[in-house]
Amino acid sequence: PRNPQQRTMSVLAQLGLRPAAWILIKPAVAHAPSFPVASCTIQELFTQHLDLFGVPRRSFFRMLAHFATLPAQRERLQEFGDVKGAEDLLDYCTRPRRTFAEVLAEFSSARPPLEYYLDLIPKLRQRYFSIASSPLLHPDQIHVCVAVVRYQTHLKEPRFGVCSTFLADLPANAAHDASASSEVRVPVWIRRGCLTMPSDPEAQMLMVGLGTGVAPFRSFVQTRQCMQPSAGCSPGHTVLYFGCRHKQEDFLYSNEWEVHLHDKDLQELHVAFSRDQERKVYVQHLMEVQRAKLWDTLSKPNSYIFIAGPSNQAPKAIRRVLKEVAITEGQLTAEHADILLKRLEAEHRFQCETW
Fold first, then answer.
1. Strand-strand pairing, 150-151 and 159-160
2. 3-class SS of residue 205
3. Are 223 and 192 in contact (CB under 8 A)?
4. Containing domain of residue 107, as a range?
5. Which terminus of the chain has fewer Cβ atoms in its 10 Å neighbourhood, N or C?
6. CA-wise closest residue to 216 among 235, 188, 202, 197
7. What keywords are annotated for this sequence in UniProt (predicted)?
C-alpha cells in the first residue's frame, strides 16, 4: 500500500524535509535487515516504505526522547517509553490509535536526523486478502473484497486503514481507460491461502462467511458453478451462512447469491443482519435452529466445513454450536464431540481463516 500523498507531504513539511531530495539507503551494519530499495526520494520513502500512519509502540517513544530539545517534551516521551508509563501510553496512543505522524507533530522539538527515521518507523507491511473469484470463471482476473477502514476515536481526525484507503482512492477502471493521464500500477502477488476447497464436485460444503470473510466462498461457489459431477451423480449440497450488520449496506454479492441459488450452484443461503432489528442476530443463532442439517454435514464422510472472518468471538461461538450439535443430535459426549471436531481439522474437513 501507499500512505496518502497529501497527508504525507504535510508531515514532511512539519519535519522540515525536502520531498524531492534523493537519498541512498545502505545497511549500517552487515547483519542489518534489507530495505526494499537502495535509493529513492524522501517523498517516496515516507509514502511507499514507512508506516507513517501506524500506531507507535513504547520503543518509538524511548528512542524519540533522545532527540527532544524541550525538557517538558523529552520528559513526557521518556514517560511513555518507560514500562511504568504503560497505562499512560495506552490512553495516549494505543486506545485512540494515535499515529507516528501525529506524535511527531505534537512533539515538535524532537527532530531526528533523516537516517534515524528508518529505525524509528517500521516498514509498511504487506496486506493479505482472500481471492474472491474462481480462476475457472475468471482466468485473467483476480477479485478481492476489501472493507474500507474508517472510524472515529476521541481524536479529532478520523482513523483510516492505509491499504484499504489506498485501494479505494484509486481511479475506477483506470487500467482500462485509454484516456487516463497516468498508468495505475498496484504491486500484487499470490500465495497459498488457508482454505482448500474439495476437488470432488460431489462433496458437501458448509461455509460460514463473516463480513468480507465471504470472499473465498464466492470463489468456491464460482468454482462449483464450473465443475461437473460424474454421470448419474448430483453436485454436492452447498450451504452458505453469511453474517453482516445491515442488509442495505453490507450484504456483499447479494445479487450473485440469488443467481447461484436459482442455478443450483448454491442450495441454501442463510443471512444474519445483526443490526437491522432491536435484538442482535448472528450466524450462530441461525445455525442453532438448523441442528439436524448441521449434524448431517458433520457426520458425512465427504463433507467440509469452512469459517472465514474476523478473529473475534464469532468463530468461537460457531465452533461451540457445532460441538453442541454433535452432542444433542449425534448423541456424543462432550469429550467425543471435541474429538470429532479435531479429527475433522486433522483431515482438513474443518478449516478456519481468521484475522
1. antiparallel
2. strand
3. no
4. 5-120
5. C
6. 197
7. FAD, Flavoprotein, Oxidoreductase
